[in-house]
Amino acid sequence: MTEADWLACRQPAPMLDALGDLASPRKRRLFACACCRRLEAPLPQLWLRAALDVAERFADGHVSNDELRDAWRRVGEDLHTAHRRIEIETRSGTRPPKDVRASALLEAQYSALRELSTAVAVSISRSGLGQDAVRAVQSAAQTAALRTAIGDWQVRAAASDAACAEELAQAELVRDLFTDRFWFVVPDPVWFTPDVLALANYIYNDHAFEQMPILADALQDAGCESGRVLDHCRGPGPHARGCWVVDLVLGKE
Predict the structure, then answer these.
(1) Which terminal Cβ of the chain has fewer Cβ within 10 Å, N or C?
(2) DSSP one-letter string for 58-86
(3) What are the boundaries of each domain within the chain?
(4) For the chain, how are helix, strand and coil distributed in percent, rounded to 5?
(5) Angstrom distance (rounded) from CA 193 to CA 186
(6) What's this model's pTM, rounded to 2 decimal places?
(7) Which superkingdom (predicted)?
């Protein structure tokens, strides 16, 4: 894969293949979590955020294997709770069971819940998240997004577009988390002022990625003139925990 291919690629799988061993276990796990987190908006009835928090902390060595396994078990309980909520809405009349469109949406949401719960379970249960597991998460999250889109009969024809859009979003996440093989930024320690470090830690710990342009300003004030770094911070994103610029500042791999 050339640098032009990397920048233009619209699918995550060939990019992960090109990275090979450059994709550390920590980064692979954070990418898997980022794929799952993308579905928080279309599937708000899920209660999986805490499990993903555990998986991310495990990636940084702040959670034990036992805590990771406990989070994995809770995913099944969360899924059951989400299913029950949908059933209660159906019985209460919010989702009339005889309405064909409502029934289709219900089935799509059930399917999305199953697929996303599988993705979350894989992302938090594997101590060493390999390439196959990452692809399983990526595929399940993509399919969950697709199921949500086609739950409405009126947009069923746009299913292929929904799948392509999710793949593209995941490819953008790969570009956010991983620098490619064709260039490397050698940081100058003078960039890492107390203000820069404090802001990067805040962004990382609180998922405060709306602060990335401010991080660019702080880095520039500290003497950073790298277009790669500043443009990435000021670009449209998306950004996720593991963003290569934030990791560069914090010394994470």
Answers:
(1) C
(2) HHTT-S-HHHHHHHHHHHHHHHHHHHHHH
(3) 3-177, 189-250
(4) 75, 0, 25
(5) 16
(6) 0.81
(7) Bacteria
